[in-house]
Design goal:
Elements: H1 2-26, H2 30-36, H3 40-61, H4 64-92, H5 100-121, E1 123-132, E2 139-144, H6 155-167, E3 172-175, H7 186-198, E4 205-207, H8 219-222, H9 226-235, E5 238-240, E6 244-248, E7 252-256, H10 261-264, H11 273-277, E8 285-289, H12 296-301, E9 306-309, H13 323-326, E10 335-339, E11 342-346, E12 363-372
Parallel strand pairs: 1-12, 2-3, 3-4, 4-5, 7-8, 8-9, 9-11
Antiparallel strand pairs: 2-12, 6-7, 10-11
């Protein structure tokens, strides 16, 4: 908790500094200098009015978290361009008559945010091929996480993405948490659950809870509870796994964990990885769905074969995309890693939560092909 408070206050301090810096640099454009007749007070008033006004507009339109992202990106681009043009000026011995640095900074920041918007609101397919020493037949797993239904697409959009997943002919689909959010409507939840019931896979659809699926503000806020979500999923033949396992084709176990937030935020308990596998046949291929990638040491020690997670959104924003790992909240932010006998895959998510830009990654669903070396 202390670390997250430090991050929050650091972010607020950076936001304040960014607003002041961008306001100050906005004053350097020739058109503003002409309007103010070089009056420093007028320049500051106009520059601050433009920047703070746009900050409030973006905050109202998207939310203030996205307004903070925008102003920090503009500040970073502006600082880079100011330093670059200062260096060029010193090396050349010439002063620029026009404020080129500001224009380029605006173009860079705008371009980065537009790309981030596109990368967030479009969904790619990411594919992995894994090999095992265990004597099992080939298995194709489809996986997605962090749809946070209602953020970048609704139930109709979910159905479209599921059609693309089904076209890959996976043997099973695993949803690695945060299927819904506090902003998800009951109607959207029910329609999306029905869409999951319509997807055709050989071995079905499996779901593990994320930290947002139960809702942080109670069922009255969004119109349904975590239990009603489970009921809707199960009614549509989705198997919800909460510290449970299922054996498929006498060769593969799907092990679904309760989310880490049960311990971290709700002061509850979930089974350890060792407890979950103690009665399972280790000759079979062990697949774990665990929303938060935060238990790699124990999962590797338990010698499970594959762990599938989401939660991190792939780090979301460059250059801050490794913060979760730096502060010890996550073991991995994105992609594939192998520790001893265990493969770990973290997806960047098929959608988003509050921040509407992905400048350090992209939205995706994942297809994993498991093949035996024997």
């Amino acid at each position: 908790m202390t670390m997250w408070l430090i991050i929050m206050w650091t972010t607020l301090a950076l936001t304040g500094a960014a607003l002041v810096y961008v306001s100050n640099r906005t004053c350097q454009f020739g058109c503003i200098k002409c309007l103010t007749k070089e009056s420093e007070k007028r320049k500051a008033a106009i520059g601050g009015g433009i920047v703070f006004g746009l900050f409030l507009v973006v905050g109202y339109w998207l939310n203030f978290m996205n307004a903070i992202v925008c102003v920090i990106y503009f500040a970073m681009a502006w600082l880079f361009c100011d330093l670059l043009f200062c260096l060029i000026s010193r090396c050349s011995g010439k002063n620029f008559q026009r404020y080129y640095a500001g224009g380029i900074a605006i173009a860079l920041a705008t371009g980065a945010l537009l790309c981030g918007w596109y990368l967030n609101h479009h969904v790619w397919q990411t594919q992995y091929t894994l090999y095992t020493d265990k004597n099992v037949k080939p298995l194709k797993i489809a996986m997605f996480a962090d749809s946070h239904l209602g953020t970048t697409f609704n139930a109709e959009g979910m159905a479209e993405h599921l059609e693309k997943i089904e076209a890959q002919k996976p043997d099973l689909l695993l949803i690695a948490g945060d299927f819904v959010d506090d902003g998800t409507t009951r109607d959207d939840m029910l329609k999306a659950a029905k869409a999951l019931g319509n997807i055709k896979t050989k071995n079905g659809v499996y779901f593990v809870f994320g930290n947002h699926d139960n809702g942080y503000y109670g069922p009255q806020y969004r119109g349904f509870s975590g239990a009603e979500l489970v009921a809707a999923l199960e009614e549509n033949k989705v198997k919800v796994l909460r510290d449970e396992s299922v054996l498929l084709d006498e060769q593969f176990y799907i092990i679904g964990r309760r989310d880490y937030s049960v311990e971290k935020e709700q002061h509850g308990k979930r089974l350890s990885m060792a407890e979950l596998v103690q009665n399972l046949d280790n000759d079979k291929y062990l697949i774990v769905g665990d929303h938060q990638p935060a238990d790699y040491e124990n999962q590797s020690a338990a010698e499970v074969d594959l762990v599938l997670s989401g939660h991190t959104h792939g780090g979301q924003l460059w250059p801050f995309n490794q913060v979760g790992k730096w502060i010890g909240a996550n073991d991995r932010i994105y992609g594939h890693e192998k520790r001893n006998k265990t493969d770990f895959i973290v997806t960047s998510g098929i959608s988003d939560w509050a921040i509407k830009f992905k400048t350090g990654t992209k939205s995706e669903f994942v297809i994993i092909n498991v093949q035996s070396l024997k």
